[in-house]
Amino acid sequence: MDMTDAITDNAARSRYELDVDGRIVFANYRRNGSILHIPYVEAPPSLRGTGAAGRLMRGVMETARAEGLKVVPICSYASAWIRRHREYHDLLE
Question: CB neighbours of 61 closer than 8 A, spacing ≥ 6?
């Protein structure tokens, strides 16, 4: 895991993004007070299976922790990822 992965908050599009060699993996979000809903995570086909979406999710969870947010994973990918990463279970709403 490369800890230099910097996710960016594209507030105009309400999504967190991770740029991998010019290809964007993103997680749509909706904020409701201190609750962060994640309805959708998408990786371009060329990045699927590379771990890019997992790196994005880790960045989203670290951002949520730093900002004191609770997370509600709505999409199946985000739910499954969080289930597999117990270190983030304290962030679940």
Answer: 71, 82, 85, 88, 91
> In this structure, what DSSP letter does residue 42 have?
E
Distance set, CA 52 to CA 19, 31, 59, 82 (Å) = 9, 23, 11, 15
Q: Are 57 and 81 in contact (CB under 8 A)?
A: yes
Q: What domains sit in the chain, N to C, each tagged with a CATH number? A: 8-91 (3.40.630.30)
Tens of pLDDT, residue by residue over 35-93, are 999 999 999 999 999 999 999 999 999 999 999 999 999 999 999 999 999 999 999 99
